[in-house]
Amino acid sequence: MHLIETRDLTYSYRGDRNALDGINFIAPRNARIAVIGSNGAGKSTLFKQFNGIFRPTSGSVLVRGEPITKENLHEVRKFVGIVFQNPDDQIFAPTVELDVGFGPTNLGLDEETIHHRVHEALRIMGIEDLAHRVPHHLSGGEKKRVAIAGIIAMEPGVLVLDEPTAGLDPQGVHDLMGFINSLSKRFGMTVIFSTHDVSVVPEIADYVYVMHRGRFVLEGKVEEIFLEPDLLRSLRLDVPVLPKLIRSLQKNGIPVPMAYTYEDAERALIQAYKGKQ
Ligand SMILES: Nc1ncnc2c1ncn2[C@@H]1O[C@H](COP(=O)(O)OP(=O)(O)O)[C@@H](O)[C@H]1O
Ligand SMILES: [Mg+2]
Question: Which residues, 6 or more positions from 143, have their beta carbon under 8 angstroms from its beta carbon?
Fold first, then answer.
């Protein structure tokens, strides 16, 4: 049974062109999934289907094998935690600690458990020192970490991040990739994120859906997606710099095996160089 699955999912805002058009999406257990696409592709609209904020116009959304209903909506929202693109939509308590504790409090947990979860979430996100700050006064990157901590504290089975790298500085992006990988590795959380910043995808995703005008036009493992540079470019997406560089070296007769992450590329280049000597 998949954690989230959509079947021929269609959604239309006002009866005009479908914002989602025949989407078949699967999130298995312990996966890291990227949904990439340029602005207006339909990424945010799709994510709002995952916890019942929007309902399908046709087709279905299954969470742990069950369609979302009024009766299970509360359970679904406990299980699928979504962090929206703009943290201001999600942060409203007078302190960071209270804000991160808002979700767990709503789950009806006892105070000790709430306290433990809040501090664990702050620790994971590296913002323990912000606990008593006013969220409103934080920087964009700090607010984003607070918003993510607020969702982690609810211990969802699936963490959905809409454009998590948007507006972050390079260190912020690097840190975020670390959180995503540790949540997936250490806690077995399934992570689904959207982005139009394709360069981060190989570092934090195993499987990729490429979205354009409400449809998936390509899907597959990272290696499969980045073998289609022309298609990606035609969708106004970039190809990560490492496979692009290695492909160019290969074309020039330098035998470097293909690599997608920094670590793999480094190893491949060192080996290729040493092999020549
Ligand atoms: N509230 C809305 N009302 C009407 N149309 C919308 C609304 N939100 C988004 N859309 C349209 O739906 C399509 C998909 O938008 P969205 O899901 O926000 O894309 P993305 O997140 O990939 O940038 C776009 O054509 C957009 O204009
Ligand atoms: Mg969006």
Answer: 87, 88, 91, 135
Query: Do residues 21 and 213 make contact, with C-beta atoms less than 8 angstroms apart?
Result: yes
Q: Which atom of ligand 1 is nearest to the CA of 85?
A: 21
Please list the alpha-helical segments (H only) found in 80-125.
Answer: 96-106, 111-124
How many Cβ atoms from other residues are within 10 Å of residue 166's Cβ? 15
Burial 4-38 (b: 16+ CB within 10 A, else e): bbbbebbbbeeeeebbbbebebbbeeebbbbbbbe
> Which residues are 9's β-sheet partners?
23
Q: Which of 49, 87, 95, 56 is nearest to 192 (CA)?
A: 49
pTM of the model: 0.93
Q: What is residue 227's predicted lDDT score, i.e. its pLDDT?
A: 83
Residue 251: partners with Cβ closer than 8 Å, 6 or more residues away: none
Q: Looking at ligand 1, which atom is closest to the CA of residue 13?
A: 4
Q: How far is the CA of 164 from the centre of ligand 1 (A)?
A: 18
Domains of the chain: 4-239 (3.40.50.300)
Helix (H, G, I), strand (E, B) or coil at 185: helix
Only one residue has tokens 């899907």, namely: 219
Is residue 199 classed exposed, middle or buried when 0-12, 13-18 and 19+ CB atoms within 10 A define those classes? middle
Residue with tokens 């991040």: 161
Mean pLDDT, residues 242-270: 91
**Residues whose beta carbons lie less than 5 angstroms from ion ligand 2:** 43-44
Residue listed under structure tokens 């074309």: 251
Q: Express each pLDDT in 149-204 by its tens digit.
A: 999 999 999 999 999 998 888 888 999 899 899 888 888 899 999 998 888 999 99
